[in-house]
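Contributing: when you submit paired examples, paste them exactly as shown. First protein:
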Amino acid sequence: MTEIAVRKIVVTVEEVRHDGGPVLATPILKGSVACIVKNPFAGRHEPEIAGMMDALKPLGLECSTKLLQALGGDPARIEAYGKGSLVGAAGELEHGALWHVPGGYAMRELLGQALAIVPSMTKVGAMGASLDVPIHHKDAAYVRSHFDGVTVAVADAPRADEILFALAMTTGGRPHARVGGLRQDEITKRDGLR
């Protein structure tokens, strides 16, 4: 089994009070957690990497828990989520894909009902690069008001031989959503789509 060596975890929370329109009665919280880990495959092509997904599962749960606590601790308040990976320059795009199961399933497990697939972004980048983590509604991917994103960046990460694994959650959609589409209160199907 691949050992997971964590260098640091960074949690960030934004409190959005308005976005140019009227002040919201309840601010929307948008949070992210970034976990910086050593990439055991940096600098070489390793044909078999899938075993690292199992090794990352406890970290996925730890990061999800830290993020939920930073957003107030109540799973019922979380409306949207996303995940992503930023691989250091000595790694491959596929190394970031190792986060799909450990990051996504951890959030879904922690939140209880979370029917929609967790949107994701993976890229290779230099130290200090930003990662735009896509966000959508946790129960119905077509809820247009919750199409959003959270930008994650850590000044000294990822180093060439590291991976930045990120999770994001929000307590609402865009502050003044008004472009139509399926609304949160119109979710009827339980297929994760509508």
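Second protein:
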Amino acid sequence: MAQLPTVAIVGRPNVGKSTLFNRLVGKKLALVDDRPGVTRDRREGDANLLGLEFRIIDTAGFETDDPQTLPGRMRAQTQAAVREADVALFMIDARAGVTPLDEEVALWLRGEDTPVILVANKAEGKAAEPGVYESFGLGLGDPVPLSAEHGEGVVDLFDALRPHVERDEDAEDDTGGDDEEASGPLKLAIVGRPNAGKSTLINQILGEQRMITGPEAGITRDSIAIDWDWHAPDGTVRPIRLIDTAGMRKRAKVQDKLEKLSVADGLRAVDFAEVVVLLLDATLGLEAQDLRIADKVLQEGRALIIALSKWDVAADPPALFQGVRAALDEGLAQVKGLPLLTVSGVTGRGVDQLLQVAHETREAWSQRVSTAKLNRWFERAIEANPPPAPGGKRIKLRYLTQARTRPPSFVLFGTRVDQLPESYRRYLVNGIRRDLGFGSVPVRLTLRAPKNPFD
């Protein structure tokens, strides 16, 4: 399909940019809170405004701090978003009126080539009227009075945006009608503790400073999804949706409301991912919180890869790798043999290998085994290790079928299966992984007994 036009929302902190973003995409994707500066990285989504379709970008609040500071790096991301957009929505708070920072943002926008639409948010009620009139003085044309929270003024916003983003009805689809791959883009989420190097790694993968990074822990707050094409070493081009998430600390240490929202947002990102990379800080090794995050990912049925980040500065790499490998096999015994890779977000070491393994893991996570092949394996497994007979009564296992994929889920039918020991269940699951090509992806096994017509 043809690429959608892009609209960037800009303005000083806490004027309601993320609220408008959520309304336009129809979901609460961006974190919203009363305090200023919640949004830090650019967040993108597909918007629909009264049938008008476009790509919307939520940006960090514009501040005038030194470029080396966190607010300064946030401002650089906002400036990049505006320069790449087809049109910018410059939002002010109509109730607060025009502030000196608003005037500074307007001065900057007047010097850019991107068309600008002035939006006076929080314009419901008479209290906002002075601010709306005052905004005429910014030199950006007539303001669009709007209430992002209550949905007032969307028709006026539609009229203002339409000339900039409406598609040419006669334009041909530039794909020539080719069907998309059945599997679609690889949905790859990067998770881990704060300051493990997640955003730095994503910047290295993309080849640009797309995510804000720095020595401060917890910079990323929203889960940011980025569509990108990976040019693999074999010459193929593979679409990937990269998802950067907020750092996940131990629950007892998470007291701040905003951090709780960020962690919850990261967990939702895991739910929507296909493959999850758990990034460990090689300078700190494996900690209990890493195992908790891994267990959560596996419980959700996602395919999991472990990556040791900052490998370029790791001390005694061979001993560290072997120690982490042993600790993973012990702490996550239910899925021994998880892929363990080494990467560096600074040098780019291991990035192509990580993406290759991610695609291979998704393939295993998505595969389906025919019932005939499955039951040939099942008969051999039972013959090699028959089920026990608790209390002298035999457990009869009849057949096995794959109910679904992503994650691979199997149903085992038999009599008295409620008495099948957990150890035998693990024997079957491990055999399915080992012998049928599922590797270390999570495999679910459900036991079913036929209904007794005389019961």
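If you have annotations for the second protein, write them as plain sentences, like these:
Residues 257-272 form the longest helix (16 residues).
Residues 29-40, 168-182, 216-222, 253-260 have pLDDT under 50 and may be disordered.
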